[in-house]
Write a structure and sequence with these properties.
- The longest helix has 36 residues.
- The chain has a domain of 130 residues.
- The N and C termini lie far apart (103 Å).
- Helix 2 packs antiparallel against helix 5.
- It is mainly α.
Length: 208
């Protein structure tokens, strides 16, 4: 058996001890290195947040549920105020027309002296304005606490209009006064019945 020098450069097993030796594994790795240069950066993507206790990803916080109807409150308030203005103007105009007709009839003296309008024109205008504001608040509350708010609103306002028209006709001592008051109540109720729900639906978020 021949003896071989452990540092013999002819022996491939001892070549790694020679200066400037380049291992085959390092050469293979250097040849494959450019293939990984285009790998995506893991820090460029958001990582899920893990809880400190269990190590599971935390769910995204749920959005807060909106309380109340999905309407633009500022526009709705403006619409209700303008509904009150329209109702008040309508009541004032109808009361003024009735009083002007009555004054002509009383001036002729053929039918005696009668006054079917028990209150002043401005009183009916103020009542119409306040009634529209109250109806707007009622519609908003019904949107929060009832499953079918529009139907409830129409029933409530419709019954109130019917009562406001029928009660003066039945309880007034003079039929002319009862008739005039019933007409004024009807003039106040009709704009409220139609305009308040329309303002509510027009002011819903995302609706024009």
């Amino acid at each position: 058996m021949s003896y071989r020098d452990p540092r013999d450069p002819r022996d491939p097993r001892t070549a790694k001890y020679e200066p400037g030796y380049d291992a085959p594994e390092s050469r293979a790795y250097s040849q494959q290195e450019p293939a990984y240069r285009g790998a995506p950066d893991p820090t460029a993507y958001p990582q899920p947040q893990y809880s400190q206790a269990g190590g599971h990803p935390q769910p995204a916080p749920a959005p807060r549920k909106r309380i109340g109807p999905d309407i633009h409150v500022g526009m709705y308030v403006g619409g209700i105020v303008m509904t009150g203005v329209v109702t008040g103007l309508a009541a004032w105009l109808v009361a003024w027309i009735i009083r002007a007709i009555v004054d002509r009839v009383n001036a002729a003296g053929k039918f005696g002296v009668w006054n079917p309008v028990a209150q002043d024109e401005y009183w009916f205008a103020v009542v119409g304005f306040l009634a529209a504001l109250a109806a707007g608040a009622l519609w908003y509350v019904l949107q929060i606490i009832t499953p079918s708010p529009d139907q409830f609103f129409r029933w409530i306002v419709g019954l109130l209009i019917a009562a406001a028209v029928i009660i003066p006709l039945v309880l007034s001592a003079q039929f002319s006064v009862g008739l005039g008051t019933a007409v004024m109540h009807l003039v106040i109720g009709l704009p409220i019945f139609s305009l308040v729900p329309a303002m509510g639906h027009k002011c819903r978020t995302g609706t024009r």
